[in-house]
Please model this.
Amino acid sequence: MRRLLATAVLLAVVEAAPAQAQSGPSFDCAKASIPVERTICKSAELAKADRNVASVYAALASKLSGGAKDHLVKDQQRWIGNRNRACIGEDAAECLKSRYENRLALLKEFGTGAYPFVSEQAIVRAGKVKATRYRIDASYPQFDGPAINFTALNTKLANMAKEAAGESVPAADIGDDIEQTWSYEQSFGLHRPGPAAISVEMSSYSFTGGAHGNGSTYVVLVDLRTGRDLKPENAFTAGGEWLRTVTAIVAADLKKQFVERPGFDDALEPAKLAELMAEPGRYLFKADGLEIIFNPYDVGPYSAGTYQVAIPYSRLRTLIRADGPIAR
Model:
């Protein structure tokens, strides 16, 4: 009940007055009643982040009406609830910093075009199996557009998050003496490559023992006209010319990147690169161009990190389908 009351108070403040005029967060620290609020009030950085999110939210809400505004209000309430459940304990400040950064970017993206009716869903869990603790904070999108059936897509996105989160829960037969904290964190961002599509960029980090954790990014291109996820070829003209062109650009760019950050020797061999380029989850269609993402171990060692190849749409203009999802 206290959390629900805090949520209602925060939303009332957001609706009533933009927070940028304040020096503290968007709520009254004298009335902070839950751990998350007290953590925010102790940090000038988090207080500013809270004001920024509240301000952008209020500006967006003021432009919406009817079902769109109702959806945004409920989504913000859900986000606050997820934030309150996830950001507790000794890592609360870092959790809040990450969540506010992600929420700010998402709200800004909501305001760049027609309201997308996308809500944040989350899996927030913590527990212990023998001596091994685990913590899960996984956010994923749900498409709620009233005129299109997104059921299959939403099921896919939810199952992906649940499966990845489940892999970060220790098995019942784990050793009695393994004193570790396993974790799985996932967030998402949205990009609008065209009026008929949204790219969902899902970033995750997991630690399940070993020398280090592992981070990765996976992308889904959504057709807002059909409610389905698309393959990269759906955005281009028929035939293989688009793939040959993109692959050649990627090969040349990676070769240059390998000078500073050496990758695997066989990564640029035609057969290996063709295998990698066949994976749709690495194609991020953004507003200004296509980005190809190679996660750690894809083309280089873990220490090299993620490799990204950015390709402006101007280099692909003749290959983009005129009636496709990224056509403008």
Notes: The first strand starts at residue 118 and ends at 129. The chain has eight helices and nine strands. The beta strands are 118-129, 132-143, 181-194, 197-207, 214-223, 228-230, 283-285, 289-294, 307-312. Residues 1-10, 12-21 have pLDDT under 50 and may be disordered.
